[in-house]
Write a sequence for this structure.
């Protein structure tokens, strides 16, 4: 009878430990999910900031009016070539 009581106590102790581990597992999974969301948001922010830095860098490299005018002429030429190609395709 005493052995049965000890076995019952050990079983209860194991069940309590199991319940505690299950609760901790659930909490950890929730923490991981929250951190994954945070990582995703931060990744999007980083991408946005990187795009902004590229724009800033491009703006700084084209500071001289002469460079800006050359860039504008190049863009006009490219747009003109695209227009010619589109017109040829439409004919």
């Amino acid at each position: 009878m005493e052995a049965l009581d000890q076995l019952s106590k050990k079983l209860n102790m194991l069940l309590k430990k199991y319940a505690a581990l299950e609760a901790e597992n659930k909490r950890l999974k929730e923490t991981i999910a929250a951190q994954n969301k945070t990582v995703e948001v931060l990744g999007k922010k980083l991408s946005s900031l990187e795009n902004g830095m590229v724009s800033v860098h491009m703006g700084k490299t084209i500071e001289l009016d002469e460079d800006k005018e050359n860039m504008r002429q190049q863009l006009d030429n490219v747009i003109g070539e695209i227009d010619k190609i589109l017109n040829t395709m439409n004919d």
Observations:
- The two ends are 101 Å apart (CA to CA).
